[in-house]
Design a protein that fits this description.
Blueprint (H helix, E strand, L loop, with lengths): L1 H21 L3 H10 L13 H8 L1 H27 L13 H15 L12 H11 L1 H18 L2 H19 L2 H27 L6 H17 L1
Helix pairs in contact: 1-4, 1-5, 2-4, 3-4, 3-10, 4-5, 4-6, 5-6, 5-9, 6-7, 6-8, 7-8, 8-9
Length: 228
């Protein structure tokens, strides 16, 4: 029983480390620096790239994307350094590449439900994309590209988001360990839960297509100039 507990400790540590990295909401910081107000007061209130880009334009949106990718990268690399290698005195603490996926899951949880923001955060698309890529570069890249292709073909961000984690879960069940497949399934469930309303809007024909984000911003900028 003790080895099992010891074996779970690094996984829990990766989850916690990832969570606190995830709580660093780039979108919230960017909006506060730009306006002095919370991201929750603009658009959908989501502190993610899509909402920031829709309200404030391309550049702030890309900054948010870069920040979300960076925090995921740092969380995963830190956990790989701490628990991924075989240099530890206790072999049960060395869990290998799976430490990256545990850290990624923690980052998604922190990004989506940050404690300091009343557990109201983003939807974790960019964070998830980076985490699965770092864990399994080939499977992650295939899944990320598939989701991107769906968005480009249909214009619907929620649809592309769920495709990413669904495909990655299928690939993990066939080509990865059972533990990795279970974690991938958890990520898929989280992704679906964060986009279920958007998917319903897609079915009803009420969801905005991705190209409209930039159009909305452009129209607002034009209207602002006309009133000045």
């Amino acid at each position: 029983m003790i080895p099992v507990v010891v074996n779970f400790m690094p996984r829990l540590a990766c989850l916690v480390i990832g969570y606190f990295f995830g709580c660093l909401l780039t979108g919230e910081f960017v909006v506060r620096l730009k306006t002095g107000r919370s991201a929750s007061e603009f658009g959908s209130g989501n502190p993610g790239m899509a909402n920031v880009m829709r309200v404030f334009g391309l550049k702030p949106g890309l900054i948010v994307l870069a920040g979300d990718l960076l925090k995921t990268l740092l969380a995963c690399l830190l956990c790989l350094f701490l628990f991924g290698g075989r240099h530890l005195s206790d072999p049960h603490l060395a869990i290998g590449q799976i430490s990256c996926l545990w850290a990624g899951l923690g980052t998604v949880l922190g990004h989506n439900w940050p404690f300091w923001r009343g557990f109201s955060g983003g939807k974790g698309v960019a964070v998830t994309c980076m985490a699965i890529f770092l864990f399994a570069p080939i499977h992650g890249l295939i899944s990320d590209l598939a989701g991107m292709l769906v968005v480009l073909l249909t214009g619907y961000l929620p649809l592309g988001a769920v495709v990413i984690t669904t495909l990655f879960t299928v690939l993990c069940f066939f080509f990865c360990t059972t533990e990795a497949a279970i974690l991938a399934l958890i990520l898929a469930v989280i992704m679906f839960s964060r986009h279920v309303r958007g998917l319903i809007r897609v079915v009803r024909g009420k969801e905005e297509r991705h190209a409209q984000y930039l159009k909305i911003r452009k129209r607002r900028d034009t209207a602002t100039q006309d009133t000045q």
